[in-house]
Amino acid sequence: MGESEGDRAPLRFRGPADYRDAARDPDTDARTLASLARCPYPFVWQALAANPGTPAHVLGDLCSKRDSAWNDGRLLHLLAEHPRADRAVLLAVLAEVEAHLLTSASRPYAAVLALAARRELKPEEVQRLAALPGASARMRAGLRRRLAGREPEAR
Length: 155
Prior knowledge:
Blueprint (H helix, E strand, L loop, with lengths): L15 H9 L5 H7 L5 H9 L5 H7 L6 H13 L5 H17 L5 H8 L6 H5 L9 H12 L7
Helix pairs in contact: 1-3, 3-5, 4-6, 5-6, 5-7, 7-9
């Protein structure tokens, strides 16, 4: 007989590597994943965002996490590519990317390109990023290519 979620012994985390390992594990239950999203370690947030089993509501909780320019950009990129990221999560990522392009020295270009490839977002929603002060000519060109490479939507 298999164990139900309620029958499992609680996970014991002895150190940061235990958090990371649980966040990476595709068999970790949704409740534990949600708990891990509240930990202070950016590498755990990234592991959650890379885990294909992480549910959309947990991904949404990760959207506003902040650490450093590099870690923030990587997290936003992973969230933008996540297979369970629904429209609500992608809109939250879009808002965070926009905030970075408006106010920060960081440039989350990989996240911009990943968002451009997502069919859940309208091209004009992503295209507006090209007009922001942090958008480089290279990012604008990549954005145009990604949007042009999308197949037309079926009607």
